[in-house]
From TrEMBL:
Limits of the GRAM domain: 142-209, 288-348
InterPro entries: GRAM, PH-like_dom_sf, TCB1D9/TCB1D9B_PH-GRAM1
Gene3D superfamilies, per database record: Pleckstrin-homology domain (PH domain)/Phosphotyrosine-binding domain (PTB) (2.30.29.30)
Pfam family, one: GRAM
Name used for this protein in its record: GRAM domain-containing protein
Lineage of the organism: Eukaryota, Metazoa, Chordata, Craniata, Vertebrata
Length: 348
């Protein structure tokens, strides 16, 4: 896979050089392949804990000029066959052209421009229009599919660093929440833990804290009890897990599949580390809350809300609250629960 060129200051830590020419270096991750030994266990553990892409793509190609100490990543690969294909393309198409340049800065500028051009061409052909998922999510989705054997249609909603408690021992790893599954992967010094749970199999989901476990999320299925803890934001994670489990139950009852909301407006400013699918689910949760609060029809969509006050003539007061605007209604809810609710159909 071609990568947007990024600087690499220490090129040989944890990597072994397998091929080199005056402008490019092909490297393999230490410990990958046969005979990994202790190095393979240590490097594998490090890759999982730090969420390194090297576990999925243990081969890479770097660009470097002779007098420069800075390397630039230009490609990575999950297999020797994939990375060799990229290496041969660079040798056949760029080596002769690069040897003509006199200035090393011009060489690097040309290489970066060429790689960006290849990526732009691939994205134009492969990505759907309006895809807002940042590169980090695509990388995580690739890891998830490869690690758990998920099909192309399985969409990643979000992923979190956490610990899974196996007995009394916490296993540090990564929790992946997809539309249909909860997945967890950990690799610590040769001990591997891989879990896949379908949302439709979840019978209980709760957030709790006990003497044995710190603040944690408990997931029960028909066969087992799972405990996850040490989240950076346990509230956000639990809320998303609850929403996905409820969504799976509703789909089971309605006999319908999950469909993305194609009419969801684009954000006014890019949201870092938030996928389009996560925004879709957040919008659904807000819509459901709005419809339940004012008992509105199922197809009513919330356009937005803002803080305001409502003048009530009967007691001559300004009541603070929130105004909600949707497809067919303007609604108001006071901050004090049940103090005042107002529903105005737009047709009136």
């Amino acid at each position: 896979m071609w990568l947007g060129p990024e600087e690499v200051l220490v090129a040989n830590a944890l990597w072994v050089t397998e091929r080199a020419n005056p402008f490019f270096v092909l490297q393999r991750r230490r410990g990958h392949g046969k005979g990994g030994g202790l190095t393979g266990l240590l490097v594998g553990t490090l890759d999982v804990v730090l969420d390194s892409s090297a576990r999925v793509a243990p081969y890479r190609i770097l660009h470097q000029t002779q007098d420069s100490q800075v390397y630039w990543t230009v490609a990575c690969g999950s297999s020797r066959k994939e990375i060799t294909k990229h290496w041969e393309w660079l040798e056949n198409n760029l080596l002769q052209t690069l040897s003509v340049f006199d200035n090393e800065e011009d060489i690097t500028t040309f290489v970066k421009g060429k790689i960006h051009g290849i990526i732009a061409e691939e994205n134009k052909n492969l990505q759907p229009q309006g895809d807002e998922d940042p590169g980090k999510f695509k990388e995580a989705e690739l890891k998830m599919r490869k690690q758990f054997g998920m099909p192309e249609g399985e969409k990643l909603v979000n992923y979190y660093s956490c610990s899974y408690w196996k007995g009394r021992v916490p296993r540090q790893g990564w929790l992946y929440l997809t539309v249909n599954h909860l997945c967890f992967y950990s690799f610590l010094l040769g001990k591997e833990v891989s879990l896949v749970v379908q949302w439709v199999d979840v019978t209980r989901l709760e957030k709790n804290a006990t003497l044995l476990f710190p603040e944690s999320i408990r997931v029960d299925t028909r066969d087992q009890e799972l405990f996850f803890s040490m989240f950076l934001n346990i509230g956000e994670t639990f809320k998303l897990m609850e929403q996905l489990a409820n969504l799976a139950m509703r789909q089971l009852l309605d006999n319908e599949g999950f469909l993305e909301d194609k009419a969801l407006p684009r954000p006014s400013r890019p949201q870092r580390n938030v996928s389009a699918l996560k925004r879709d689910l957040d919008a659904r949760a807000k819509n459901e809350y709005y419809r339940a609060m004012f008992r509105l029809p199922r197809d009513e969509r919330l356009d937005g809300h803002t803080g305001c006050t409502l003048w009530t003539p009967f007691n001559k007061l300004h009541i603070p609250g929130q105004m909600f605007i949707s497809s067919n209604y303007i609604c108001f809810a006071s901050k004090e629960e049940d103090a005042c609710h107002l529903i105005i159909p737009l047709r009136e």
